[in-house]
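WARN retry 2 of 3 for item q-0093 after timeout on previous attempt; input resubmitted unchanged.
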Amino acid sequence: MNPTNPRRPPKSQPIELQPLKDACEATGRAGENDPAPEIDPPFELAPLAGEPNSTGPRDIGKVEQASAAYEAPIPAHPLHVCPTCDYNLTGLTSRRCPECGEPFTLIDARRTAIDKSFGWSTRLRMLPQWERARLLVGVALTVISILAVNVIHLGAGRSLVSFQGGLMVVALLPMLIWSGFLQDIMGWTPSDVALIVGVVMTGIGVLFILF
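OK item q-0093 returned
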């Protein structure tokens, strides 16, 4: 058969496959089969200084605890000191003293720093009337009891201190040290310590005078 015979149908051309995206664009349906765009995760603030950084799943309870435990750093001015041990709290981000382990508030720490900056006379004048009265009574009882025991037991010689008077002075030092420990444990004020020491020294003085 003649290959140029017009009766013979022409040979069909091979079909070329087009990519799906190009085919969609050609038919006006672009974007239907495209993959879903990536959505950025919710915006999160960067962790502050001292706050734990965790990129994994975050539990709501843990986040609340971390937020409660974190506080802003304590500034250097004005000065803040621990109300329990007088530790300088500058730069601390928690509200627990690293020296003694006791919790504190900024108001108490600031008030303690102010009290420490004043002299004894100024701090005495700043005390409430009842606190000041107890402090003065305790000091007066201690001094009077020691002087009374010393004068009564003083011999006829030139000695200025009797044995009993010297013994009371020596006993006063460990009593003050022990009272300092009790002050931290019991939460006593200096006025309480002075009054208790004065009463105890008066009792010891009476025993020395009678016996």
